[in-house]
Specification:
Elements lengths: L1 E7 L1 H5 L3 H10 L3 E8 L3 H7 L9 H8 L4 E8 L2 H9 L12 H5 L8 E3 L3 H11 L8
Antiparallel strand pairs: 1-3, 1-4, 2-3
Bound molecules: adenosine-3',5'-cyclic-monophosphate (CMP).
Length: 138
Amino acid sequence: MERTLSIIKPDGVSRGLIGDVIKKIEGRGLKIVAMKMLHLTPAEARGFYAVHRERPFFEGLTTFMSSGPAVVMVLGGDNAIARWRELMGATDYRKAAEGTIRREFATDIEKNVVHGSDAPETAAFEIGYFFNRLEIFV
Ligand code: CMP
């Protein structure tokens, strides 16, 4: 079983989309094996997105990600990383396929409702950023 990190970003939480996103995750057969709600500090958001620190959108992204509570989850299943990315849709909601979360709900390339790890190494880093072993249920 593969694991990936999923975040319902502050825009998704404030717009009341937690239930819609979870319904799609479970409907697609991905298993939620860990979950918590937290409000990142700007420093925590910068640490999480450190790989993007040279990008022009880094400041805006980390300010947004620390603007309100988010829901972080670990999803498990065969091919969980690719399946969760497919269900989220492209980063730019205008390019996201029909039926994806971003196509349905996102309104902005930055405020794009959800996040997902993009590879096994990033998944390991991102899961470890938020969860310890005792908080993940197989
Ligand atoms: P996410 O999948 O969380 O990974 C990095 C995030 O940076 C991305 O979703 C968007 O929220 C944000 N992002 C990526 N590209 C841009 C962009 N061109 N402008 C603003 N934000 C972006």
